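Q: I have 464 residues here and want to know how they pack in 3D. Can you give me a structure?
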Amino acid sequence: MPKKAKTVFVCRECGYESAKWMGQCICGAWNSFEEEKVQSVSDARSRSFAGEGRTAKVSKPSPVSEIKSGNHERLDTGIGELNRVLGGGLVKGSLTLISGEPGIGKSTLILQAASYIAGKYGKVLYVSGEESEEQIKMRADRVCPESVENLYLLSETNMENISDAFREMKPAFLIIDSIQTMYVPEAESAPGSISQVRSCGNELMRMGKVSGVPVFIVAHVTKSGELAGPKIIEHLVDCVLNFTGERNHELRILRSYKNRFGTTSEIGAFEMAEEGLTEIKNLSGTFLEDLEDGNEGAVATAVYEGTRPLLLEVQALVSPANIGFARRTAIGADNSRLAMILAVLERKAGLAMINQDVYVNIVGGLKPEGTSYDLAVALAVYSSYRGIGSSSTTLAIGEIGLTGDLRGIQNTEKLVREAARMGFRKIILPAKSAAKLSEHPDGVLLCGVRNVSEAIAVFRNDGE
């Protein structure tokens, strides 16, 4: 007689299991526990997607000296920006999770990569639980340059059927779109629940690791842009990618938040066109194309994203507050960081900001990480407040401390070289970072400053 399934409560945010329901999880989330039925060990071992009469491949320990490096076992996707974010290509046997808002271009990007892999490495299996095979074929006709014979489509949500098709076809690349629509018949919960996502994720991991086939998994996002559903899937996969962009703009940014085989926080840039997604080679030029000489409240800056330096335009608008408290609004920049920079300007530069609305925008829709754009934000706010125009050939980088001093930044040499390549002739940066540069490009003036006051003095002379 089969044993009755055990009931536990699992946090959908961190995966923590508890024998009883808890209002707040140890991770800090409230009302995040969901009931889940766990099968006994004997039942779980007897259950297999391989079916009766067939056994799954058993993994055996291997000496480290005989294992090939993952750097030499990658598949070229045919898309340079995607290869960059992945760390050089798809690692064999890896699980990659890609998320993004509906209509942002996830399926288009995956289809373009799938068509190239199918033409170069062999069969590719595209499994969709949301769209019919006809819908995917219509998109493939639009974005794929030529017909690909080795690209196979399957409209299915049952993991048993998907596993059977995978075993029979033996593809070189597997795509699951999306994980929230897949289900395991043995699990009693609905698709997208913790039980289903965990079971499907474990089966996909087994399929990929045992066969050495890279697996691409598509996931939904919430209105706030976070990954929808249980967070357990993020812990199972090897790489987590996020595809962002505005529907009314052509620019698309692919960012890596987790990568066991490459650099995290790496970004790739694409442009949405009628024939699909095209790579943007000169991303800095795209962000700076509207920067003009003499504009008030516009200052160029540089950040380091993953393995590439990027130049950005920081815009600021300061206007008197008419009613109530002054507003502080930042798009692309951190709001708490903006509040700190305004406090430093008020204390160290004599700006009365208490009755001024301040709006800051990082042009292009990119949300840079780090603090190297602090100085550009401060100078943009000062430029708008004083009505001083800025030069289109001047760039500012540096982190601002609470004392008003400028702290050194990393990768200064690469940022300076990128700025020189883009035609900048004057760079305002921390004195400590300038002192560490043994050499710099000809025709570029490095202005090393120790604090915000000195940076404003250099900026005023440049504007005048």
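Q: Anything worth noting?
A: The longest strand covers residues 308-320. Confidence is low (pLDDT under 50) at residues 40-56.
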